[in-house]
């Protein structure tokens, strides 16, 4: 794999991120320790260095498995990202949320499970609608100054909150969020309304979770396979099946797997994007890693864009209509300059 800069930083990460939510067998599914080790070996051997986990994935087992792996490997080679916010114990009222107290406690617990002195990227996992964003950024900046984390990032948070946060950070001289993690795939494009334009404006890298829509975009449901997604899920409705049929058709044209098509659609959107690829089997990961060896044509991208198109709503659709009506804003400004 090649390496990309993560947001407005000098941090070099591989072009696919390894999602480790499935490391551990709690809840009746996932990869045990040996398989998880084999997955990380295969990822590292392919040039991968960017690992994504969270304090509460598999009740902390994901972090513990990564920590055991790091004990026998080069810690500095890997860029390790974890998260705080969601409840990881029931000891006290502040064992969840975005507040400073929970952040400090969560980071200390994550460092122990990960068996490391520092976390490369710390994400706020999900916005709690309670904690002031300046409290979050000030606390993250303090952790950066203490050397316990290297970079700040944010996930599953409204665009206006992230924008306010990065603006405050720039004003106050605090470390800004360099990455934004959101759901984004051919089946879930609503992030294009506000979140992705905001990320582009601030130079943030988008790290989509569920870029394969829980496996729906691999065509497994058309093949009659079962999974953890319920039959009534939107990922299995008529629109989703139509999108997946297009993915399957393009995959057949290229002679590649459906996952290559779905993942490359996110990677070729014209903004900094590093999809998170989860795996609970080594062959599953190896197939997904081959994504970097293909490129979708402009015509194929257009077919996928058309079949998965969403309404941007106001003001996005209004801007688009005005651009068409006036033969683009650029043409209007050209006339202004001539005067």
From TrEMBL:
Gene Ontology molecular function: any one: oxidoreductase activity
Name of the protein described by the UniProt record: Predicted oxidoreductase
Ranges for domain NADP-dependent oxidoreductase: 15-307
CDD domains with a match to the protein in the record: AKR_AKR9A_9B (cd19080)
Source organism of this protein record: Mucilaginibacter pineti
Keywords carried by this UniProt record: Oxidoreductase
Pfam families, alphabetized: Aldo_ket_red
Annotated Gene Ontology cellular component terms: cytosol
Keyword Transmembrane: no
Presence of the UniProt keyword Hydrolase in the record: no
Transmembrane segments: none
